[in-house]
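Worked example

This section walks through a single chain of length 151. The input is the sequence exactly as stored; nothing has been trimmed or padded.
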Amino acid sequence: MTEKKPGLDEMAAKNKTFIEVDGKKYTCSPPEIFDHAEFLGELRAEKLSEAAGHMKVLKDAGIADELCMQEYDRRVDKAEVDDTEMLVAMNSLRGARFYFGVCAGRNHPELTKEAVIKLVTEDNWRTVIRQLNKLKPEAKNVVSGKGKKKT
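Given that input, the structure is written out below as tokens.
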């Protein structure tokens, strides 16, 4: 008799964890690669928006259009988000809200962005991050800066 291999549902169930926020337990699934891409896109969009805002300030100050466009282009070229920026953003209030929203939202469709903002606050976001780190064992202690040691 051959041993039955676990299917996708069984493997996904093993990777889930429970996170308690504001006295309620939420079932959370690990983030998918597209979740990271979405978060990265939000960070980049913010930089592009800042570049556009800076260009408007320069135009309003009477700076020549050509110089404004050069400055805008320079800022757009620097709008990439490096690994350090991504890690810092992930381990912030914004990151806690984003990742809690996507990880818990798959199992709790009632969690809107507004509900997540009310649940994950300035007072508890670090605890939420620590609990989310359980979803990815090699990421434990990222918040404290004590990530997995390389051997």
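What to look for: The two ends are 40 Å apart (CA to CA).
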